[in-house]
Amino acid sequence: MAFPKGFLWGGATAANQCEGAWDADGRGPAKTDVTTGGAVDRDRMITYIDKDGNPGEMTQFAKLPEGAKYAVLDGYLYPNHDGIDFYHHYKEDIALFAEMGFKQFRMSISWSRIFPKGTEETPNQAGLDFYRNVFEELRAHDIEPLVTIWHFDTPLYIEQELGGWGNRETIDLFVKFATTVLKEYNGLVTNWLTFNEINNPIAFMDMMWPGSDEEYQSTCVELHNQFLASAKTVKIAHEINPDYKMGCMLSGGTSYPLTPDPDDVLANRYQWEKGTFYCGDVQCKGGYGPYAKRIWDEHSVSLEVTAEDEKILAEGIVDFYTFSYYNSSVVTTHDGVDKDARGNFTAGVKNPYLEYSDWGWSFDPKGLRLYLETVYDRYRIPMMVVENGLGAFDTVEEDGSIHDDYRIDYLRGHIVEMEVAVEHGVDLIGYTTWGCIDLVSAGTGEMRKRYGFIYVDKHDDGTGTMARMKKDSFSWYKKVIESNGADLA
Ligand code: BG6
Question: How far is CA 50 from the centre of its chain?
Fold first, then answer.
């Protein structure tokens, strides 16, 4: 049996994609609350009122026009407003997770539920109470919470009025928020992640969005500020409770060279450096890797890294490494190659050896093994796969059953490769599948892109009863957990 005793099987969610109750009990808005639904071929849009009072919309990666304010507008549907209403269904949902035998449940805390604008001196008690209730419910079912402190949801006020992560002031606002929850839930939570997929902005530059020097400049500054916020949080957490385990969380970006042309091989090597090691080295080794200077020079980035910053980064090394893994990508320097592959934040060349989902994501379990073995060899700290899963259309049969054998096949393939990695020496301690209960897609804002073992009756037009139903994968995963990964049939 490859998986160690006590292996943390479970599932993962994020506050903004499942809680709903976006303006309940004092919660302030986040960017996801002004983001519309989209589809695989239609961008999600961010809505605003321009300086002359006219409504406007822009893509998620565009910059807010001068003088404009983010706004919720009539005539648009904002899927994150209701999510799957986990806010009111958490007891029922946790009971279902417990029925599957979850050892661990990954969730995030919405910053603006605790500090609605981010700048308040005292936290919102109703927000604190909500998460306390959720953690107590989990504990009552012997489920360990794994808590992401930031999952793409900076309070809108900080983004709009203070310039978000480009402003060093945001570091202290985050640390205040993080310190509040680290103190508040001492005794209820042990395992924490600071920033979800911290590497996204730089990893997918030039792949998903054009990497102008200006973009690199702002991204490197924003990341540096997040690194500092993360490192300060790790240090404070260990002071609050030496038993706290603090993890980083990166988007798992396995990539391959398209050809053996040395230029392709080098380009792929540099993609790993930019996409994975740039953030991994800072968070796991306590400082930037030697190649960082090459990246900055190539894009004329001027980054202020003070001696004090270096000290903070060195003192804020994480205890374990976590990542999401959905698919892999291909890198080439060659022109004239069809670049129609779309993945989780990636776009690029299709891999002829792999199959692709309805959303254009490759199915590549061996890429997960490669990632685990490569990254473990570099950092030698415990690892967890905290997101993995297949977003797919599900059909509810007349009798209410949902036959999602495609999801079982996807997960089985990845668990098999995790097992091989463990046999090869990787210290893998946990696995939480993404969207263990259906939730709003981050990339497209859709409900019909479903990941769950539990179906939620909620649809892209906002209709639905929010009823929960078990899919075939529910009993399959229960068996996997019961057998500690031995029974994957
Ligand atoms: C990761 C995010 O990028 O991928 C999640 O951490 C997200 O928030 C998940 O939901 C799957 O992506 P999508 O676009 O299918 O929701």
Answer: 31
- 349: which residues sit within 8 A by CB, 6+ positions away? 258, 329, 330, 331, 332, 337, 338, 339, 341
Whole-number Å distance between alpha carbons of 443 and 441: 6
Mean pLDDT of 234-260: 97
d(CA 25, CA 435) in angstroms, rounded, equals: 25
Catalytic residue, chosen from 184, 387, 417, 446, is 387
Gap between the Cα atoms of 92 and 86, Å rounded: 9
* Placement of tokens 């009823």 in the chain: 467
H or E segment to which residue 473 belongs? helix 472-482
Query: What is the structure's pLDDT at 205?
Result: 86
Atom of ligand 1 nearest to the CA of 251: 3
Active site residue 197: yes
Tens of pLDDT, residues 359-384: 888 999 999 999 999 999 999 999 99
How does 11-21 read in b/e, with b if 16+ C-beta sit within 10 Å?
bbbbbbbbbbb
Q: Are 371 and 418 in contact (CB under 8 A)?
A: no
Residue showing tokens 């490494």 = 321
Would residue 419 show up in a list of annotated catalytic residues for this protein? Answer: no
In this predicted structure, the answer to whether residue 342 has a pLDDT above a threshold of 70 is no
State the distance from the centre of ligand 1 to the C-alpha of 18, rounded, in angstroms.
Answer: 12
Shortest-distance Cα residue to atom 16 of ligand 1: 441
Is 75 within 8 Å of 37 (Cβ atoms)?
A: no
Q: pLDDT tens digits, residue range 402-435?
A: 999 999 999 999 999 999 999 999 999 999 999 9
Residue 482, H or E segment: helix 472-482
Closest CA to 156 of 29, 48, 49, 64: 29
* Residue 121 alpha carbon to ligand 1 centre in Å: 32
Non-local (6+) Cβ contacts of 105 within 8 A are 10, 11, 12, 13, 94, 97, 138, 143, 144, 145, 146, 432, 436
Kindly state the average pLDDT of the residues 112-116. 98
Backbone angles phi, psi at 320, to 5 degrees: -150, 160
Q: Output the CA 324–ligand 1 centroid distance in Å.
A: 9
Tokens for 242, please give them.
């030496």
Question: In terms of C-beta density within 10 A (0-12 exposed, 13-18 middle, 19 or more buried), how is residue 190 classed?
Answer: middle
Residue 351 gets the label, from left (phi > 0), alpha (psi -120 to 50) or beta, of beta
- Ligand 1 atom with the shortest distance to the CA of 359: 15
Asked if 8 contacts 427 with a C-beta cutoff of 8 angstroms, the reply is no
> What is the Cα Rg of the chain in Å?
21
- The single-letter DSSP state of residue 118 is S
Q: What is the spatial distance between Cα 60 and Cα 64, in angstroms, rounded to a whole number?
A: 10
Runs of H (alpha helix) within 185-261: 200-203, 213-240
pTM: 0.97
